[in-house]
Amino acid sequence: MNGIPKYVVTNTLKRADWNNTTILSGDVSAAIRKLKAAPGGELIVYGSPDLVDELLRHALVDEYRLLIYPVILGSGKHLFRDRIDTHHLRLTETRRFSSGVVLLTYVPDPEVPTSRFVEEYRWTLEQMRSLQAAEDLDRTLATVLFADIVDSTGRVHEMGDRAWRKLLDAYHLAVRGVIERWNGRNIEFAGDGVMAVFDAPTRALRCAFELLETARGLDVEIRAGLHTGEIERRETGVGRIAVHIAARLPGSAAPDRVVVTSTVRDLVTGTDLAFTPLGPTSLRGVPGAWDLFEVGSSDR
Question: What residues contact 296, with CB distance under 8 A and at least 6 apart?
Fold first, then answer.
């Protein structure tokens, strides 16, 4: 692996330190077509459902090697996304291993089979709409709040592990009470960070202000960020891009301050609120530049 050429498809990494690694960004399909036309060996994609989906859309896959394991997981990420176009394949090789794993090799088949199963297993418009409706039941518009403790590493070094653990427990207890008072849900703690979801942006912002005051009362300084967008409720919590955006916002906030996106600014109400523009800001792992605002209140 160290010796062969490697290509990483990414819109976030600017450099790759692994030996013989090249970053591909921008128009991925054009870059891969260029690689396929160049001399050299086979191009192999390991996993990466998002990349595989992009390659499928542009008919760039020449061979599929699927390993079937004798394990039923019952969950996990799909290798092929729902609602992709139908792709017909032809089996060219089968190999069975002593472990029970089977390797199936397929190539795209330009001829559409005439079997009756082709029509029976084809997605109908009604089925696609039913799937979309079922997925939308778990999606809702919400305001996501993230907050973290400023210089928590320095505080641990200053206080010691035991004293810090005691303070962090008190902080988590107080934070949970504040969030629940403002009707926040899906409260999650990760070290010195906390996330909560609200059904109204104004309520989330008022909660953020009270969290700052609560932290100061415990001799802790925090910073918070809020974004409003579509989230998906899952068994393990919530997801979708709105959560990732909100998670990056505290990094743009000064200590004891709240930062919001323009979406939150446009939705919240309150004559006591003042929004100071921070200008277009890049958020790690999130495409594009985001207009952020620091929020102050005359009641604070």
Answer: 273, 274, 276
Q: Which of 263, 259, 265, 257 lies closest to 278, judged by CA?
A: 259
Number of domains within the chain: 2
Domain that holds residue 57: 6-136
Of the residues 117, 136, 155, the one at which a domain ends: 136
Query: 21: which residues sit within 8 A by CB, 6+ positions away?
Result: 5, 6, 7, 8
**1: in domain:** no
For 177, the enclosing helix (H) or strand (E) is helix 161-181
pTM over 0.85: no
Q: What is the pLDDT of residue 134?
A: 65
What CA–CA distance (Å, rounded) separates 145 from 220? 18
Tokens for 132, please give them: 């979309």
- Distance (Å, whole) CA 195 – CA 226: 10
Domain of residue 255, CATH code: 3.30.70.1230
Mutual angle of helices 28-37 and 49-57, in 10-degree steps: 80
Residues 25 and 7: their CA atoms lie apart, in Å, by: 10
Q: Mark the ranges of the chain whose per-residue pLDDT is less than 50.
A: none
Pair (44, 149) in one structural domain: no
For the record, the structure tokens of 184 come out as 């926040």
Q: What is the CATH number of the domain that holds 26?
A: 3.40.430.10
Q: What's the pLDDT score for residue 136?
A: 58
Q: Which residues contact 215 (CB under 8 A, 6 or more apart)?
A: 149, 171, 175, 221, 222
Instruction: State whether 165 and 199 are in the same domain.
Output: yes
- Is residue 242 domain-shared with residue 267, that is, in the same domain? yes
Q: Tell whether 129 and 144 lie within a shared domain.
A: no
Token pair 């409003």 in the structure block, residue: 228
What was the pLDDT predicted at 167?
92
Could you tell me how many helices (H) and strands (E) the chain has, helices first? Answer: 9, 13
Phi, psi of 116 (to 5 degrees): -65, -20
Q: Which two tokens stand for residue 58?
A: 């542009």
In a domain, 251, yes or no: yes
